[in-house]
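Need tokens for this chain, all 248 residues.
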Amino acid sequence: MPAAAPPPAPASAGRRYNCAALIDRKGEIVGVYRKNFPTHSELDGGITPGVETPVFETDFGRVGLCICFDLNYWEVGAGLCRNRAELVIWPSMWAGGRMLSKWAMEFGFNMAAVWKEQSTFVDVAGREILAVKREARDRTGRSPVVTARIDLDRRLLHPDNNLENLKALFERHGPTAAFTEWLKQDCHLIFGSQVPGASSDQLIEEFGLETMRDYLARVRRDRKAALAAAAEPVYANGQTAAQDGERI
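Here are the structure tokens for all 248 residues:
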């Protein structure tokens, strides 16, 4: 299992960043994330904000990183979502609390949080599956390791436009083709492939299912288009000014 570790603030082209590094099973660095939203004390101390939200391919899934104060900013979670993170590791100076669940549900990824007093794992539906009190160092002087088993192939769906396609999936592959769990109060559906050799994403593509994060992104795009259209004059024949200009 790769791990996230906060290296000393490294310099690049004369600039210093607050970074977290993803380390693989061989002890090699897979990738580095630069904190997008340093605190004022960090800025005053010469830390430069990062501008990217990279997601790194590992032998078990797509992993992203964010750091502490970043959790307050939608832009960071949205960037990790766009880059298709399946697990986001969050080293921090505080516990995160319900904000971990908010990010998991809104952005569609699992979260692993660690600070000096507690390690927490939250699943794709925002449910806390493990929270372990810990100390920064145990009796040996080493930092204890907390682990949890998470299925990174689970996806969060909304029932809108998905139920009929799910029926088609079960009709073709049988009643045990997928794990599904209906979360009525959240209006969410957890989905996971149980077809040998087929991932959840492959079944989603095959049967035209739509994940929650893709659904929300599509609604945002359609809303933007609707607002843009509403802002244009419309003639009696139904044409907009832009369409009339194109016709001319």
